[in-house]
Design a protein that fits this description.
Blueprint: E1 2-9, E2 13-20, E3 24-28, H1 34-43, E4 46-51, H2 57-60, H3 63-70, E5 76-78, E6 89-90, E7 96-98, E8 104-109, E9 118-122, E10 125-127, E11 132-133, E12 136-137, H4 145-156, E13 163-164, H5 171-181, H6 186-200, E14 208-209, H7 210-216, H8 225-235, H9 242-254
Parallel strand pairs: 3-4, 4-5, 5-6, 10-13
Antiparallel strand pairs: 1-2, 2-3, 7-8, 8-9, 9-10, 11-12, 13-14
Helix pairs in contact: 5-6, 8-9
EC number: 3.1.2.6
Pfam family, one: Lactamase_B
GO molecular function: hydroxyacylglutathione hydrolase activity; metal ion binding
Length: 263
């Protein structure tokens, strides 16, 4: 059995620690080393592996300092475009990673936020990096909008009970946007109230579940009439396929300013 714990880092990142009953820890996307080192000191864990979802510095800059401080050599798994930034074992679509705890994760290629972005899925868990957030999705940096759309839809097809652990605390800002698109969505309003309480208590709003995201995440709700209406009103014209709706709201979100204290 593994326990997943959030390690807050930088401005709004979460580094995820997957800790086994023996104290072995797998770290996901260490953007800096110091919070992980403090966590290990407090919990008496030992590092067994590192998983990287993409090459951005706020997900990789802690790898070498962490390995150096702990003076250990452990496998570091990541997509090909992290090679050169840190020493890794490159992973590709459908690769299976057996962790020392016995847990097995499958690599999912989810390009969009970056061209080589991957997610790790297994044991009822999903680590989507910056592809899927609670009530949102990642910005487009390197790939095509079509790639991002396909990647988000792919994650949305996972079992609804799958617990997702995105890499940033963006929930309140994303819910502010979701509520703009669907002001009458009661589940969004309820979730927003819950998230506010969690942040006031300095608690993470994550994990989320794929099932919850289908109820509150506009990027997984492009087939609903309310999202289509909002997107077409913003575009000032009728929109055709679901991809066009996705593109419109993703571009809209890029310039949306949340009237929300995201804490």
């Amino acid at each position: 059995m593994i326990t997943v714990t959030d390690i807050p880092a930088l401005a709004d990142n979460y580094i995820w620690a997957l800790v086994s009953e023996t104290g072995g820890a797998v770290i996901v996307d260490p953007g800096e080393a110091d919070p992980v080192i403090r966590y290990f000191d407090q919990k008496h864990c030992h590092l067994e592996a590192i998983l990287l979802t993409h090459h951005h510095p706020d997900h990789t800059d802690g790898v070498e300092p962490l390995l150096g401080y702990l003076n250990v050599q452990v496998p570091v798994y990541g997509p090909f475009d992290t090679l050169g930034r840190v020493p890794i074992q490159p992973v590709h679509e459908a690769d299976r990673i057996l962790l020392p705890s016995g847990a097995v994760f499958t690599v999912l290629a989810v390009p969009g936020h970056t061209a080589d972005h991957v997610a790790y899925q297994g044991e009822g868990l999903l680590f989507p990096g910056d592809t899927l957030f609670s009530a949102g999705c990642g910005r487009l940096f390197e790939a095509r909008m079509e790639d991002l759309f396909a990647s988000v839809q792919r994650l949305g097809r996972l079992d609804p009970s799958t617990r997702a652990y995105p890499a940033h605390e963006y929930t309140l800002a994303n819910l502010a946007f979701a509520a703009t698109l669907e002001p009458d969505n009661r589940l969004i309003a309820q979730y927003r109230g819950q998230a506010r309480k969690q942040r006031m208590q300095k608690r993470a709003t994550l994990p989320t579940t794929i099932g919850l995201e289908h109820a509150v995440n506009p990027f997984l709700r492009t087939a609903t009439g309310s999202i289509r209406t909002a997107a077409e009103h913003h575009a000032g014209k009728p929109l055709g396929q679901l991809f066009e709706i996705f593109r419109e709201i993703r571009l809209w979100k890029d310039h949306f300013i949340a009237r929300e204290d995201v804490m």
